[in-house]
Amino acid sequence: MDISTTRTSTPTTDDRLAEILANPGFGTYFTDHMFTVEWTPSEGWHDARVTPYGPLTLDPATAVLHYAQEIFEGMKAYRHEDGSVWTFRPEANAERMVRSSHRLALPELPPEDFVRAVDALVEVDQRWVPDAAGEKSLYIRPFMIATEKFLGVRPAQHVTFMVIASPAGAYFSKGVKPISLWLSTDYTRAGRGGMGAAKTGGNYASSLIAQQEATAQGCDQVVFLDAQEGRYVEELGGMNMYFVHADGHIVTPETGTILEGITRSSIIDLAGKLGHQVEERKFSIDEWRDGVTSGDIVEVFACGTAAVVTPVGQLRWAGGEAGAADGEAGSLTMQLRQALVDIQYGRADDTFGWMHQVC
């Protein structure tokens, strides 16, 4: 994939950029450039380019607006102490996008081209990568949308893949604290044969009403059960879950209808290195409640790209609640979190080969 680069004639000033990076928030500010490449059946992937960031012009009949044929990824770039810039397991994001493409009947972007596209944008906009202080990073959003002007219900014959980036502050600006969860009994995230394992906007759109309910009940996040039996824990609105038992082994819900998180996979490997057996299996809501009550479950935590790892506190549902697991201040949870963050920011040896240097 040959990539052309056209730099903006009006880059963000150094003073303004310093102001943004001092308090970037999340998804509020965007870098000076974006990456774009297009696909058609006759030409394949073509016209790859980095250009100044700006609005898209879409016909009202553009397919993605009507049939939601779109997928995306979420990843980060980190600045190390020596000033170099690295991404975390970009090939894993690329491979997951291939799987999502297959489920949404979109063309597959070769993983090596995915990584090159991300690298191209991050290299051009590397000054937007914050220093590591306070767990700041550059959040990267690759996405693919159906851009054919056509209202027929079939896979689009024109598709666009893009990458944009936004500086991000720490998810927990006041320190890591346990989140409270609302158990949704009215809504499910995905069913067997559905899109649960694909990273597509429809999964997130369908979770919003349940998240709205959780917020109304005073909880931070919503947790979903399986669609078939309504018994088994799946995931939160945007994070995977783990349950630490008193004997040290860990259980995480099996995949198939849930998103195979990159952080989830990394936690499994890290926990194994620390001597903890990790089971991927069905895990019922009754097992959660009974385990916390009996003391067999000593820690519960969730993980994702934005929060990395967060302890889980109280679980609530209509007519009841379960208290937080009473482990020693989430000791393993925080140990795993620190180990992962230290690798990402270059403070610990990357024995897994997860980090990819961009510049």
UniProtKB/TrEMBL annotation:
Membrane-spanning ranges: none
Cofactor(s) this protein requires: pyridoxal 5'-phosphate
InterPro entries linked to this entry: Aminotrans_IV, Aminotrans_IV_CS, Aminotransferase-like, B_amino_transII, BCAT-like_C, BCAT-like_N, BCAT_family
Keyword check for Ubl conjugation: no
UniProt pathway annotation: Amino-acid biosynthesis; L-isoleucine biosynthesis; L-isoleucine from 2-oxobutanoate: step 4/4; Amino-acid biosynthesis; L-leucine biosynthesis; L-leucine from 3-methyl-2-oxobutanoate: step 4/4; Amino-acid biosynthesis; L-valine biosynthesis; L-valine from pyruvate: step 4/4
Single Gene Ontology BP annotation: amino acid biosynthetic process
Top-level EC class: transferase
Native source species: Nocardioides islandensis
Protein name: Branched-chain-amino-acid aminotransferase
GO molecular function annotations of the record: branched-chain-amino-acid transaminase activity
